[in-house]
Amino acid sequence: MHILILNGPNINLLGLREPDIYGSETYEDLVHQLREYAESLDISVSLYQSNHEGSLVDRIQAARFDIDAIIINPAAYSHTSIAILDALKAVHLPTVEVHISNPKERETFRHYSYVSEYAEKVIMGQGVAGYCQAIDYLVNTYRKK
Ligand SMILES: O=C1C[C@@](O)(C(=O)O)C[C@@H](O)[C@@H]1O
């Protein structure tokens, strides 16, 4: 099984950005942790982070060729991007949305996520552990027996 893990704007600054909200682990720590976790489950992961909406759309479109499922933290684009929602609908892969914080408990402009219109599961407020929970969900639900 091959899972694409996508992260949107400012997730590259994990550890530095608002550590009281997002924790002290860096994006590099997260990548390392997810690669190790995937290896322990005998699945493959591709990781991609971009601060650009169109680049995220391009990566989602390319996923139709070799990816079985998507984990996405669209970051601020969650609350604005119909383009990312449309790309996810177009490739039509099982998708889990992850947020490190719980946007529903923050400013009202973070309460709505376009991506949640498509994602079959949303994991919020679990810190970076939320990404591993998303992997578990996809592996348990979709890994071919
Ligand atoms: O950049 C982010 C990160 C976030 O997606 C999270 O992981 O908690 C929550 C978003 O509201 C915010 O814009």
UniProtKB/TrEMBL annotation:
It catalyses: 3-dehydroquinate = 3-dehydroshikimate + H2O. Its EC number is 4.2.1.10. It holds the Pfam family DHquinase_II. Catalyzes a trans-dehydration via an enolate intermediate. Gene3D superfamilies: Dehydroquinase, class II. Substrate binds at N73, H79, D86, I100, S101, R110. GO terms for biological process: amino acid biosynthetic process; aromatic amino acid family biosynthetic process; chorismate biosynthetic process; quinate catabolic process. Belongs to the type-II 3-dehydroquinase family. PROSITE patterns: DEHYDROQUINASE_II. InterPro entries: DHquinase_II, DHquinase_II_CS, DHquinase_II_sf. GO terms for molecular function: 3-dehydroquinate dehydratase activity. Homododecamer. The lineage of its organism: Bacteria, Bacillati, Bacillota, Negativicutes, Veillonellales. The active site is at Y22 (proton acceptor), H99 (proton donor). Pathway: Metabolic intermediate biosynthesis; chorismate biosynthesis; chorismate from D-erythrose 4-phosphate and phosphoenolpyruvate: step 3/7. The record marks R17 as: Transition state stabilizer. It comes from Veillonella criceti. SUPFAM superfamilies: Type II 3-dehydroquinate dehydratase. This is 3-dehydroquinate dehydratase. Keywords: Amino-acid biosynthesis, Aromatic amino acid biosynthesis, Lyase.
